[in-house]
Amino acid sequence: MKAVLCKAFGPAETLVLEEIASPEAKNNEVLLDVHAAGVNFPDTLIIEGKYQFKPPLPFSPGGEAAGVVAAVGEKVSHLKVGERVMALTGWGSFAEQVAVAGYNVMPIPPSMDFTTAAAFGMTYGTSMHALKQRANLQPGETLLVLGASGGVGLAAVEIGKAMGARVIAAASSAEKLEVARAAGADELINYSDSSLKDEVKRLTGGQGADVIYDPVGGDLFDQAIRSIAWNGRLLVVGFASGRIPELPVNLALLKGAAVVGVFWGSFAQRQPQDNAANFQQLFAWHVEGKLRPLVSQTFALEQAAAAIDTLGQRKAVGKVVVTVR
Ligand SMILES: NC(=O)c1ccc[n+]([C@@H]2O[C@H](COP(=O)([O-])OP(=O)(O)OC[C@H]3O[C@@H](n4cnc5c(N)ncnc54)[C@H](OP(=O)(O)O)[C@@H]3O)[C@@H](O)[C@H]2O)c1
Question: Does the Cβ of 152 fall within 6 Å of ligand 1?
Fold first, then answer.
């Protein structure tokens, strides 16, 4: 099979496309014929050896895929050959086939195409878990989303609206903010040319945001925590800016606020039934047209490096997908 390989940790341009042996589905594993693979920010880090997981070299990057079950290990009973599925693979999806633990594979609705399914699991799974289990977002509350045109950010805008919140989208350019507006955002803040803290205060009549969704970290976190409402919840989702911020905890004390960690991959593994329930809701909203995943660019397998670079260079809007079949 064809696979994009990382043979030494380094930038995307060092990835190579090679012919290698297909993997097998052992025990509790599922072998997937990959049709499309979603690109996520961790792909930019894992090839550089900077992510929390360091796969043994050589490996194929690609943390999620959609495709058809080609084989199942003897201990897998919930899936059958030929079923259309999405899978959280961690790595290995920028290839024609990938073997993945069965608990990370989920059937997709008949109405969902493979490109959409490859763009759905990680971002909507993360944002749903963040807003539901971690923030307990309530109808009528104000939700501030940072990096609101990115993968997890845009999903948070749509899910926030579906949950009945007033959504303030914040991003670094007018073009990116238009994407968030099209996804349903009520208010927009361009944090390249205005103070995030001042704008949030202005838009909330001085109250601040009830829930803050932060996949960016760094300087934006520092401003965001100062714009949180009484009893607010700040969701720590990621650090796309490259800096893990530090918190003077008196700020949490003064607002009676909570800073809440979000780790969807671990949640999906530890609480599979809650995760499955989240996806039933997400699939229902998709069928109802409340969620309209934006795939702004697709790349062929040979161009996977360029696909990863799009995210690394802060140029991606919505999701970028590698089309494999
Ligand atoms: N906790 C979890 O379970 C979980 C799950 C999935 C992803 N994540 C994390 O969430 C973050 C976002 O992932 P994603 O896949 O949504 O990425 P993405 O599509 O590339 O979006 C990241 C956003 O961050 C902003 N950003 C600010 N500084 C940046 C920089 N130096 N480089 C790139 N982007 C920058 C960009 O928006 P602006 O230009 O508008 O600022 C961009 O839209 C990552 O840190 C990822 O690891 C966490």
Answer: yes
Instruction: Select the CATH number that applies to the domain covering 2-120+293-323 from these four: 3.90.180.10, 3.40.50.300, 3.40.50.1260, 3.40.50.10490.
Output: 3.90.180.10
315 Cβ closer than 6 Å to some ligand 1 atom:
no
User: Is the overall model pTM greater than 0.70, yes or no?
Assistant: yes
Average pLDDT, integer, range 78-91:
97
Fold of 125-265: Rossmann fold (3.40.50)
211 Rama class: left (phi>0) / alpha (psi -120 to 50) / beta: beta
Confidence of residue 78 (pLDDT cuts 50, 70, 90): very high
Cis peptide before 42 (omega within 30 of 0): no
* Residue 163, pLDDT score: 98
Q: Tell me if residue 72 falls in helix, strand or coil.
A: strand
pLDDT attached to residue 233: 98
Measured CA to CA, the distance from residue 194 to residue 179 in angstroms comes to 19
Q: Please indicate whether residue 297, judged by its CB atom, sits closer than 6 Å to ligand 1.
A: no
Say if ligand 1 is within 6 A of residue 239 CB.
yes
d(CA 281, CA 115) in angstroms, rounded, equals 20
Which tokens hold the place of 324? 């494999």
CA of 93 to the centre of ligand 1 (A): 20
Domains in the chain: boundaries: 2-120+293-323, 125-265
Distance 234 CA to ligand 1 centre (A): 16
The pLDDT value given to residue 109: 95
Q: How far is the CA of 150 from the centre of ligand 1 (A)?
A: 6
**Angle between the N-to-C axes of helices 151-162 and 272-288, in degrees from 0 to 180, rounded to the nearest 10:** 80
Nearest Cα to 288, choosing from 159, 129, 181? 159
Give the separation between CA 322 and CA 325, rounded to whole angstroms: 9
Q: Is 314 in the pocket of ligand 1 (CB under 6 A)?
A: yes
Per the structure block, which two tokens stand in for 205? 């009549």
